[in-house]
Amino acid sequence: MTRPRIMGIVNVTPDSFSDGGRFATTDTAIAHGRELIAQGADILDIGGESTRPGATRPLVSEELDRVVPVISALAAEGAAVSVDTMRAEVAEAAALAGAVVINDVSGGLADPDILRVAADHDVLYVAMHWRAHSTEMQQHAVYDGPGGVVGAVRDELSARIDDALAAGVDLERLVVDPGLGFAKSPDHNWELLKHLDELVGLGRPVLVGSSRKSFLGTLLGSADAPRPVAEREHANVALTTIVSLQGMWGVRVHDVRASADAIRVVERFAHDPGEA
Ligand code: PMM
User: Fold this and answer.
1) What is the pTM of this model?
2) CB 3.0 to 4.6 Å from 127: which of 160, 172, 195, 200, for a disulfide?
3) Could you tell me the pLDDT band of residue 213, with boundaries at 50, 70 and 90?
4) Both ends of the chain: CA-CA distance in Å?
5) What residues line ligand 1, using a CB cutoff of 6 Å?
6) pLDDT at 15
7) Which domains are delineated in the chain?
């Protein structure tokens, strides 16, 4: 079994839905990154733009000021750092500061020049399924084609892979992500989680990000009264377990220790003591 990589989330934002500004300064974000490494994170995903539904975008200069010092400091300490950005300019600055992953939630749609940046640097490029910016994404949660949400996400990610290859990104450096919660209803998210094998069929490693998302809140509470963000972790650990058993490339999580423990259980469970 291949152990999924744990991508620990460091949101250097004042307005994230999940950790609401707790790590919004350079110092608190760096300290949080160190703590996530100590808990078992393989990669730290540093983001300076909140993508929660309805969020307005920061200026490029604000995003740069938020992420670059944090990336520089953590990369200098030897951490494998990812930058969570849709902007070519931010991705370029991050790569120069030591980031080894560009995690683009728009898969190259928001700023196609980001694909050129990914091609120019020695980085992995994560192409997530996305349809529109946060202010309008929920209007795009419509999947009427014959393949439903799974077919649409697979085909749209396939197109993102083609665009990245056309821009010169090496196939071996591409990772895909279904983009849970981005232009998706709770049912769409569950449908995708049930059919991750269809995305594996694209031939690229798959990253899954379910941590603290509202479809878990809806499941555990109701659509009108979702379970609060801080009380969704146990459900997310269940998903980390499921995703690990399915051999996914990675999970993107806030609570690294909880998912690391789940992955250890899966590894031990899958381990045959008779094997060398
Ligand atoms: N989700 C968020 C942000 N970035 N990146 C990837 N690759 N996959 C995701 O599912 C994803 C992402 C939104 O969650 P956050 O606000 O808690 O970071």
Assistant:
1) 0.96
2) 160
3) very high
4) 14
5) 9, 11, 16-18, 47, 51-52, 84, 103, 105, 126, 128, 177, 179-180, 207, 209, 212, 252
6) 76
7) 5-271 (3.20.20.20)
